[in-house]
């Protein structure tokens, strides 16, 4: 798997031609070795399962401000795994190691904690995956919290990374662009998706391919600030953007 290879998806609309970044490793640990069977519960991180009636929030403190995310109860495996890692302090000191303006900000690689300047990141993780939890009503609108994963060629079941995640920035789309995307991707967007993508924006071409398990409820402006930082090789910010997390009670 070529860690530098991107897949590009191009669409044309008469006078307008635009290119959507669709990277197979944007959310994949490209050199990560095959993982254990994700359907074996012993190899999937778990926490004491919160009640589905409880709303779970996590505070992400960064060098550029704070972000609060709500975790979806409709994706319990991802919710519980994220809460477990947060409570263990796993994310404290890690970097947002890959940032693409107009697309997303990605973090959670454990190798980023002590990474040297210019070091290529994105291949770190824990020795398990999480089974995909695709829920049609949960999609890649701006602020969506989703799980990174390896590409389809080595991960046909689209199982999620143990720890790497991304927050969507995305772009605002018009109705014609979404119709063309539906045709190209052979999918149909719901009214809720269309309303979101034509107003606040997002990355609709990722829907159904990566598990969305939460959303930003406070701090979208911080996502924008991080997305705007200057980056170098492999889309790593030139100035480190570190994170610290804790469970947040609203």
Low-confidence stretches: 1-47
Question: How much beta, percentage-wise?
Answer: 15-25%
Helix content: 10-25%
User: What would you report as the Rg, rounded to the nearest angstrom?
Assistant: 17 Å
Average per-residue pLDDT, rounded, comes to 84
Q: Name the strands of the widest sheet in spatial order.
A: 5-6-8-7-9-4-3-10
Shape: globular
Distance between the termini: 43 Å
- What is the H/E order? EEEEHEEEEHHEHE
Q: Would you report the number of β strands?
A: 10
Largest sheet: 8 strands, antiparallel
Structural class from helices and strands?
A: alpha+beta
Continuous helix count: 4
In short, what is this structure?
The protein is an alpha+beta fold and 250 residues long. The protein is built from four helices and ten strands. Strands 5-6-8-7-9-4-3-10 form an eight-stranded antiparallel sheet. It has a two-stranded antiparallel ribbon with strand order 1-2.
